[in-house]
């Protein structure tokens, strides 16, 4: 005996252009039937909030998320009973979310299921109401589900190494020196940063530096050369080239657009 509730949506191509479109949402609990083997054409995040089971050859213990990947066969089920939420989604943004580490594969353990269940529950409420904007609103909430899963993954938040790297990001030193100061091999640093942020150490540091530079350009009267130094660049010309390539405009133009006056 098990209880099941679900709603399915049919987005049109314009909805898919939003990046992610919600295709369905549901909740089940009890002695659920085995799923598969089957193949789906879209992504599904299955949140197991209670119970235990299996996913292929991998054991599942709540709280955990099961990732059903488009075009990949999956087969899973509970040992006896479990409780799950699920959300089906698709769209061109899914590839970028996967590259950044927000969409996984297989089974991922969670420290807690509550934030993820809350976000999926928001989608469920929208779908129950069946309002005129249900498709757009439900689709917008899928982003929050992916963020909640990422924040809830076991041992993947508040990493002290990542915190130390962010703290020293604006020091004018290369990635190799950051690794030496942190006492880890460069290969390990690359693996940790990629796993936690979806970016390489170089790109992670660059984003922090450019964010710092933008803040200074928008809120201070410092010359561009001084902004460059505070962002970790001894060569203002190199800083300007990097800034222009990533932001799409030189620092002076960004300041002209965004300057809010000197802040105390």
From TrEMBL:
<keyword id="KW-0804">Transcription</keyword>
<feature type="domain" description="HTH araC/xylS-type">
    <location>
        <begin position="159"/>
        <end position="257"/>
    </location>
</feature>
<keyword id="KW-0238">DNA-binding</keyword>
<keyword id="KW-0805">Transcription regulation</keyword>
<dbReference type="InterPro" id="IPR003313">
    <property type="entry name" value="AraC-bd"/>
</dbReference>
<dbReference type="Pfam" id="PF12833">
    <property type="entry name" value="HTH_18"/>
</dbReference>
<dbReference type="InterPro" id="IPR037923">
    <property type="entry name" value="HTH-like"/>
</dbReference>
<dbReference type="InterPro" id="IPR009057">
    <property type="entry name" value="Homeodomain-like_sf"/>
</dbReference>
<dbReference type="InterPro" id="IPR020449">
    <property type="entry name" value="Tscrpt_reg_AraC-type_HTH"/>
</dbReference>
<dbReference type="GO" id="GO:0043565">
    <property type="term" value="F:sequence-specific DNA binding"/>
</dbReference>
<protein>
    <submittedName>
        <fullName>AraC-like DNA-binding protein</fullName>
    </submittedName>
</protein>
<dbReference type="GO" id="GO:0003700">
    <property type="term" value="F:DNA-binding transcription factor activity"/>
</dbReference>
<dbReference type="Pfam" id="PF02311">
    <property type="entry name" value="AraC_binding"/>
</dbReference>
<dbReference type="InterPro" id="IPR018060">
    <property type="entry name" value="HTH_AraC"/>
</dbReference>
<dbReference type="InterPro" id="IPR018062">
    <property type="entry name" value="HTH_AraC-typ_CS"/>
</dbReference>
């Amino acid at each position: 005996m098990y209880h099941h509730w679900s709603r399915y949506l049919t987005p049109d191509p314009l909805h898919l252009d939003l990046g992610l479109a919600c295709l369905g949402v549901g909740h089940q609990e009890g002695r659920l039937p085995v799923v598969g083997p089957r193949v789906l054409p879209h992504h599904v995040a299955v949140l197991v909030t209670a119970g235990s089971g299996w996913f292929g050859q991998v054991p599942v213990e709540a709280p955990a998320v099961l990732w059903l990947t488009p075009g990949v066969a999956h087969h899973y089920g509970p040992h006896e009973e479990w409780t799950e939420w699920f959300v089906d989604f698709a769209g061109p943004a899914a590839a970028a979310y996967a590259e950044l580490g927000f969409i996984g594969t297989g089974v991922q353990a969670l420290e807690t299921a509550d934030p993820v269940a809350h976000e999926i529950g928001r989608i469920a409420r929208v779908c129950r109401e069946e309002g005129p904007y249900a498709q757009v609103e439900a689709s917008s909430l899928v982003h929050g589900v992916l963020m909640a899963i990422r924040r809830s993954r076991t041992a993947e938040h508040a990493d002290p190494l990542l915190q130390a790297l962010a703290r020293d990001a604006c020091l004018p030193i290369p990635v190799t020196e950051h690794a030496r100061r942190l006492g880890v091999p460069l290969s390990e640093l690359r693996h940790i940063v990629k796993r936690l942020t979806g970016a390489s150490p170089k790109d992670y540091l660059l984003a922090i530096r450019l964010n710092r530079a933008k803040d200074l350009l928008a809120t201070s009267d410092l010359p561009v050369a001084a902004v460059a130094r505070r962002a970790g660049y001894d060569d203002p010309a190199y800083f300007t080239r990097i800034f222009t390539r990533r932001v799409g405009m030189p620092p002076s133009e960004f300041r002209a657009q965004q300057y809010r006056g000197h802040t105390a």
